[in-house]
Specification:
globular; Jelly Rolls; binds fe (ii) ion; binds 2-oxoglutaric acid; 3-stranded antiparallel sheet; 295 residues; 9 strands; 6-stranded antiparallel sheet; alpha+beta
């Protein structure tokens, strides 16, 4: 059987017709990001002298024994050149389609966690009109040039089709310079909505088409572009925006963090229960997927 490659994970499933209707009422809600920022996305900067992700990522890479200080110093401690300094071949993707370094960062040091929480409290929370909950375990991505095991079409998706509540905000924070294929492609909100609409909001169909329908793939590419950003920049976007990782054929490693946050009041707007679609079936609620306390 042909391996189904349309999925980044398991697509949201509905218990009944009513459940899907309830989902759609959330999905069709007004964009919160447009309400707050008057735009479908918001890009800004923070002071990397105060919030030291880079230094702490390097410390963590040394502690986990992925690199040596001596070798990395040959490349001026430039994270973009990390793939040239790794001790062994940790760049390849395994069956879960991740590399060992990205996986190891799910369990990360207290110092990175502290930096993360400081970033949320000092930089992100003040942008919102009320307190927010944040994703407890941030996703770090180490995206190396020409990764072995990467053999699928760009997997456009919105996190909502993977079970996330439509009231979230997506945040994407690069720790290297990102451009071209080492970056994430993003489609504006309006265009994304149109594409999903053209599939009758059937995410299985959408996932299938992103892999096998050539003219559909062409349109997705035409209507999206790779984020061009530097360390110290971050972007917040509407969770309905389509986005994808690409096969990195640049000469640079990309390291980024992606997280989701939600405003306190939005939790009361869920029309149904939202859970992760993987094995854990974790509720998108404080004390589970989100932080226990709002900040
Ligand atoms: O960074 C990427 O390549 C993908 C990130 C993503 O899917 C997300 O931020 O939801
Ligand atoms: Fe995503």
């Amino acid at each position: 059987m042909m391996k189904k490659k349309g999925h980044m994970g398991k697509t949201i499933a509905f218990e009944s017709k009513e459940d899907r209707e309830l989902f759609l009422s959330d999905y069709n809600s007004l964009s919160l990001i447009e309400k707050i920022f008057s735009k479908w996305m918001h890009q800004s900067k923070y002071d990397t002298k105060k919030i030291k992700f880079k230094e702490n990522i390097i410390k963590e890479l040394l502690k986990k024994d992925f690199i040596t200080k001596k070798k990395f110093s040959d490349y001026n401690f430039e994270l973009e050149k990390l793939h040239l300094c790794l001790k062994s071949d940790l760049k390849n993707l395994d069956e879960s389609e991740q590399n060992e370094i990205s996986i190891s960062f799910y369990e990360t040091s207290d110092i990175i966690k502290e930096t993360y929480i400081e970033f949320i409290k000092k930089i992100i929370s003040p942008l919102f009109p009320e307190e927010i909950y944040y994703q407890v375990v941030p996703t770090f991505r180490f995206h190396f040039p020409n990764q072995k095991g990467y053999d699928w079409q760009d997997r456009y998706h919105t996190d909502i089709m993977l079970g996330h509540p439509p009231y979230e905000f997506n945040l994407w924070i690069p720790f290297t310079k990102v451009y071209g294929t080492n970056s994430m492609r993003l489609m504006p909100f309006k265009e994304s909505k149109k594409v999903i609409e053209s599939c009758n909001k059937d995410f299985e169909l959408f996932a299938e088409k992103t892999q096998y329908d050539e003219s559909f793939i062409y349109e997705l590419k035409k209507n999206s572009s790779p984020l061009e950003m530097n360390y110290g920049d971050f972007i917040i976007f509407d969770p309905r925006c389509l986005h994808c990782t690409q096969y990195n054929d640049t000469k640079d490693t990309r390291i980024s963090m992606d997280i989701r946050i939600i405003m306190k009041s939005a939790l009361n707007n869920y029309s149904r229960e939202y859970r992760t679609t993987g094995r854990k079936k974790m509720p998108f609620l404080p004390g589970h997927y989100f932080s226990k306390y709002a900040v």
